[in-house]
Design goal:
The protein is an alpha+beta fold. The chain folds into 4 domains: about 60 residues, no CATH class; about 80 residues, Immunoglobulin-like; about 70 residues, Sandwich (Immunoglobulin-like); about 70 residues, no CATH class. The radius of gyration is 24 Å and the shape is flat. The two termini are about 40 Å apart.
């Protein structure tokens, strides 16, 4: 039996046979920790004999550095609007700059065609994935051709605060309008304040019952370029630590992104950097940036 696991910057295949696996990996096999087998980005072949059985893992291929990928996705041609309450809208997207075969998806259902049809009015996030598993996204809005349409103005929340806001701008259809945030009751006020970071769904309805929805993500607004890069390079990616002598090397954004969860956990616990705990403001900034998706922003 075998599985593939991404460890640091490698895709690793782990093979085992039941009796050996039981003794070598007492925890459930899919969750085993391979960090003990790695040292300074070198991967060794390990063979352990157990009652005539053997376990082994091997390096397969380096995981692609998607931070340098030129993959992009865009809408081709006109977007077909939808009639109120009818799923007859659609659009086509295309991808450029990536490698291999492109696959496109809405709601994680991938297809090789960039054509999407039978859609109701609303905003859709379309993702493309290439042969290196690099991804890019684009937001596409299908308008109600005979009813209400909306656009959103958003303000970030700030790190550790609930200062986010969403203003819903409605046009078309028949007034008055009502607005709903997630599963809350519909209200006539088009402004939602005191919001924490996270994903929100706005539903707007006009006087004749025509409905349109749009999903938006509020972030903390913490910037890698303005804040996180300096914290990591000054405290962690130093010459005697994660600047090259200790794995993982955190001198590049791609490695920082791949280890973002680990960085958040270890800086939060105070075990990183070993030279001394970061300030609470720095720890919070790293946590907020990671929770926002560890973006290149």
């Amino acid at each position: 039996m075998s599985t593939k696991i991404k460890v640091m910057n490698y895709l690793v295949k782990v093979s085992y046979k039941p009796r050996c696996g039981r003794y070598l990996f007492p925890a459930s096999f899919p969750n085993l920790n391979l960090s003990m087998f790695f040292s300074r980005n070198l991967i060794y072949l390990l063979i352990v004999s157990c009652f005539g059985y053997a376990c082994q893992y091997e390096q397969l291929s380096p995981v692609s550095d998607c931070s340098s990928s030129n993959l992009s996705i865009s809408v081709v041609g006109d977007i077909q609007g939808a009639n109120c309450g009818v799923s007859n809208g659609g659009f086509q997207v295309e991808a450029t700059g990536g490698d291999g075969v492109y696959e496109f998806a809405i709601d994680d259902s991938f297809q090789t065609s960039g054509q999407f049809s039978n859609l109701s009015a609303g905003t859709y996030e379309v993702m493309v994935s290439d042969g290196n598993n690099c991804t890019s996204t684009v937001l596409v809005s299908i308008q109600n051709v005979d009813g209400i349409n909306i656009s959103l103005d958003v303000d970030d929340t700030g790190c550790g605060s609930t200062n986010g806001s969403i203003i819903v701008n409605a046009t078309g259809g028949e007034t008055p309008y009502t607005f709903k945030l997630n599963d809350a009751s519909a209200v006539s006020n088009n402004t939602f304040n005191n919001l924490a970071a996270g994903e929100y769904t706005i539903t707007a309805t006009d006087n004749v019952g025509c409905v349109i929805t749009q999903t938006v993500t509020l972030t903390t607004g913490v910037s890698y370029n303005a804040t996180i890069d300096n914290i990591i390079s000054s405290n962690c990616a130093t010459s005697n630590c994660h600047g090259g002598n200790v794995s993982p090397n955190l001198s590049s954004l791609s490695n920082i992104q791949q280890n973002a969860g680990r960085i958040k956990a270890q800086t939060g616990s105070g075990s990183m950097p070993p030279s001394g705990k970061l300030s609470q403001t720095q720890i919070d900034a790293i946590a907020c940036w990671v929770d926002d998706g560890a973006q290149n922003n």
